[in-house]
Amino acid sequence: MANQVNLTMDGSVAVVRVDNPPVNALSHAVRVGLQGSFRAALSRAETKAVVICCTGRSFFAGADIREFGKPPLAPFLPDLITEIEAAQVPVIAAMHGNVLGGGLEAALGAHYRIAVKGTRLGLPEVSLGLLPGAGGTQRLPRLIPAADAARMITGGKPVSADAALSMGLIDRVADGTDARAEGIAFARELIAAGKEPRPAGSLLCNILEPAELEGVRAKVARAARGAIAPIACLDAVEAAMSLPFEDGLKKERALFQELMASDQSTALIHAFFAERQVGKLPEIEGVDPRAINRMGVVGGGTMGAGIAVSALLSGLDVTLAERDEVAADRAADSVGRMLESAVKRGKLAAPQRDAILAQAFRTTTRYEDFAQADLVIEAVFESMDVKKDVFTRLDEVCKPGAILASNTSYLDLNRIAAMTSRPQDVIGLHFFSPAHVMRLLEVVVGKDTAPDAVASGFALAKRLKKVAVRAGVCDGFIGNRILSHYGKAVYGMVLAGASPYAVDKALTGFGLAMGPFAVGDLAGLDIGWANRKRLAAERDPRETYPEFADRLCELGRFGRKTGRGFYIYEEGAGGPKPDPEVEDIIAAERTAKGITPRAISEDEIISRYMAAMVNEAARVVGDGIALRPLDVDVTLLNGYGFPRWRGGPMHYADTIGLDRILQDICRFHEEDPILWQPAPLLERLAAEGRSFGSLNT
Ligand code: HSC
Ligand code: NAD
User: Fold this and answer.
1) Model pLDDT for residues 22-45, shown as the tens digit of each residue
2) DSSP category for residue 226
3) What is the pTM assigned to this prediction?
4) Ligand with an atom nearest the CA of residue 519
5) Residues recognised as catalytic
6) What atom in ligand 2 is closest to the CA of residue 321?
7) What is the atom index within ligand 2 of the atom nearest the CA of 382?
8) Is the distance from CB of 235 to CB of 220 less than 8 angstroms?
9) Neighbour-count burial of 571, counting CB atoms closer than 10 A to its CB (0-12 exposed, 13-18 middle, 19+ buried)
10) Alpha carbon nearest to ligand 1 atom 48, residue
11) 369 CA distance to ligand 2 middle (Å)
């Protein structure tokens, strides 16, 4: 700890260098060291400038998030930054890697800023339910245009060194790669030119005109969908524009403390750590993944084409097999279109796209072309017979050690693996649609899957910039199994009296990206229909089966792709429209079943939806399908549009109390004992007064 910060002299330039791997978080020890070294630097008579820089892969990536929620220890970061800003000699932040949060705020406290190429600078506090609380909201709009400052602070997205330069956030993008050396050279230039300290706090703040500010406010509120931090971030920027610097800092501090005490920030910090925890599995610790460079994809429909694009964008070589030439050409067109759209969105350069299509991607109708593939992923129709046929053929042609993966949404991976002579190499890699966009990848581990195949699934996810969650084998794995269950609760509510539109409205109000009926329409109602037919034989005859969804499918209403589902989709109609015909179909079913519809409030819709989700999630954890509650949270957050600021269903359940959820389930059980059976794990934890969170460690 003693050598986390060190001071060296390079002539008249004092160099304060921090070494706190992996990301140089500004922990208490670092703050103590930084303050000590900085004071020592200033106390030396020969010091004419101070350079602050870091070792390792990054400048400071922010305050130490692990310290949040504990009593803060002095020196506090805001005070330390104020002290840096008050230095009587120029202070230079020499940056590389990630300059984030409190790290960027420290750089704003310096008088000059230089960054090597590839540096990314940002204030991501908003994604933790916070705002930059160490002066960032007050100093940034004094240095760069207020609109840019508001966007960086409320959106949290980092910018490149070049963008930072053009905004005026930094003074120079260095040619070299050694931030320390570049910082010293810059300091020498400043000394030679007689440059003075240049505290950002003493500059006039850039402003937004009232109308502009209102426009930004409306946009931020729309995008926030229930999150409070983006709005508080804008309030802090507004304070910078309207108050003297010192008062602005006080306002920032007050808003920061409020957010820090909020459930939302606790939830978002839980999500941050959970996403880093999901990959930590005893099963793959110290296990080397297999090398994956050449990938095969079987089936080039919605998922296969998306998976191919995801892999191509990450530098993998992809061979895609389809049933015949026509289908192969169609798949190639889809891949080409998705790459073209990546070019349009600035994610890919046109020459790079051309190189990918010329060298890294090809279609085929021959499985023999998979002979050299390191991993082949199957994304053909969701039919056990088709999957079995595909895996039998893959087993014949693939090289030893190749990983054979299935993208099945529900089917039994062990039965698929049994079609091969190498079940140890068979794994589920369940992507979500659109596969090149959605971050979630469920890595489904069969009973014979080898640990290094599991490790390879996780390594592949990392390469594709996705978050991987380990799932065991059951119908629907983690996410779709839970979805099937809360889907039944949703249909049950509609049968009892709620309209699908009221359900969607209540749940988007709760923070979901889309309501379940709008999601069904998007995914295609035929998918759920096929699934219900597949499971018909096993269905408990006592289960209340809502038929209206089947009726819609029988009428050819599959959702968006047919222009009608639960909603009507018409060009130029300004979005999906409710359909009275759907309400009539539901009303007819209620009448046939002798159900008198009752009013169901938004609160009740949310309680039922969440109780069903949490109950099945508890069974999924209890059965060992998900290793920990946090794996469920990460799944629902990244694949199912669950509001991130609620931390995931398990974290949400902990927040409102497991006993309350259990009471709801017991109450609902009285009216429908088949759908509402309390999960044993939930009962046990509630009885012991414990939380799901207690199972995460
Ligand atoms: C902040 O700065 C608040 C300030 O505005 C105000 C404070 C004022 C307080 C006033 C009080 C009076 N802390 O992601 P990786 C760990 S809020 C602690 O896998 P990558 C991470 O958990 C902060 N730990 O690496 C992991 O640990 P593990 C704003 C942190 O290369 C390991 O480092 N900053 C940490 O894929 C590696 O992480 C942010 O929000 C932190 N700040 O990505 C940035 N950051 O190995 C958050 C990381 O044990 N960090 N760790 O699992 C990131 O976005 C990413 O980690 C990077 C690196 C992009 C930096
Ligand atoms: P799709 O119908 O869009 O595409 C399937 C493709 O497979 C078709 O192009 C078909 O020609 C091709 N195909 C069929 N048999 C083949 C064979 N023997 N050899 C080569 N190609 C063959 O289906 P999809 O939506 O892409 O789903 C594919 C798989 O992914 C299914 O298992 C599905 O459950 C799963 N999945 C789908 C989604 C989704 O949202 N669509 C999400 C996750 C997983």
Assistant:
1) 999 999 999 999 999 999 999 999
2) T
3) 0.96
4) 2
5) 105, 125
6) 20
7) 32
8) no
9) exposed
10) 23
11) 19
